[in-house]
Amino acid sequence: MRPRSFQEYVQGPIQIGMGLGIISLLARWVTGTTILSSPESMVKYGVFGGIGYALMGAIALFMFSFIGRRVRQDFPVGLTMGDYLKTRLHPLGYWILLVILVLTSLHTLFIQGMAASTLCQFLFDTPLYVGLFFFFCFCVLFAGFGGLKFIHGIASFQVISMFAAAILIPLYFFVKEGIQPVYDGIRLYHPYMLVINKYDLWNFIFAGLLVGFGQFFFDLTSWHRLFMIEIKKVPLTFSLSGLIWITFPLSFSSLFIMVIFTGGFTDIHSILVGLANKITTPFIFILFILCAFSAITSTFGACLHSLISLIVANILEPFQTKKSDQQKIRMAYLLSILIGGMVFVATLFNSPTLLELLFYSGNIYSALLAPFLAIVFSKGKVANFIPISAVLAIVISYIIQPYVSDFQSIWFSGLASFTIIVICTILTFIKTKWRFFKTKLN
């Protein structure tokens, strides 16, 4: 059914409670990246890399519960993250962050497109563009045209299918193979995966925490859900979501262990092929495919809807104040087609791994962390140097990236924005005191 107003398109007809809030957050954060990148991190950094990946997301969601409570206390009513930023920033800083929000959201959509590409290559013996075309059409229809009411309508089914796969498939394998043979196989073929004191592992975890905090704190969909949940239930909803979320990457990491314990592998595609060969029960195979499809579509749909809502409500509306609700909804439909088509084309002509994609944007999210915290915990409007510090840190970190490791550039990006904010704050304080002193003298 078509939304009656633009607000209903953006937020649905009612304010949601803790149960639907958790389902909505899990539908956003149990992603194609969760299913495919957590095993990839385990393969690259060992078993503890998979555990570290799970902890990163869980801790970030838990910390966002405190951020969310502070935001809702200061700004109880809003539609998008842009509404909050408008009250906290001057025009220059506001537009800087809006541009960054749009770019990071498009990057998130691209990551899910790459996950869908991996799944299509694994499933279908057809040209890649055929499977991707149907995937993007489905996401545009249910999220871009259906609005939040339709997204929530299928979110429960998506989360149930993901839970069923996360519980039943590892259980099926461990009952079938046994735990001891799996452990012995890992020790024989991949002993490095059991080492905890690898230098890269700790680099991965600490850099991942910076990226995770920045990504979760600056995510349009999380903010979108934040304004929909009842204020008193915000902290518990986000905390419980983090606690439940951690089971998914751990489950899928254990699932892929069941594939590689009998021998070697080349990449994530070879692991998926090995998984298909090991699943001899049609029900289990269908459940895995349904889980992967649900995770990718739910995340893509939620991010697409939140991005469209931001563009219409905060970027286009100030220039077209006389648009009616139905005109805004039609504009949202058009944007969903344009954005879906753009990401579709970008996905067809690019082929980085999901883990590379996740950490390539790490400099951006790390640089945004300090400015974001300054915006939330400051009183009144914050100075323009705070959002500008993020831009400077991002530019500098990408300039030095060829000369340092990826993890070092992420740390440098976060440290640079923090340092710029501290220096500018001190200079502003000194300048204010000097003006006060000169006034007293006069």
TrEMBL record:
GO cellular component, one term: plasma membrane
The protein's name in its UniProt record: Transporter
GO BP of this protein: sodium ion transport
Predominant subcellular localization, coarse grouping: membrane
GO molecular-function terms, A-Z: symporter activity
Organismal lineage: Bacteria, Bacillati, Bacillota, Bacilli, Bacillales
Keyword set, alphabetical order: Cell membrane, Ion transport, Membrane, Sodium, Sodium transport, Symport, Transmembrane, Transmembrane helix, Transport
The UniProt record lists the keyword Membrane: yes
Catalytic activity: L-proline(in) + Na(+)(in) = L-proline(out) + Na(+)(out)
Organism in which the protein naturally occurs: Peribacillus butanolivorans
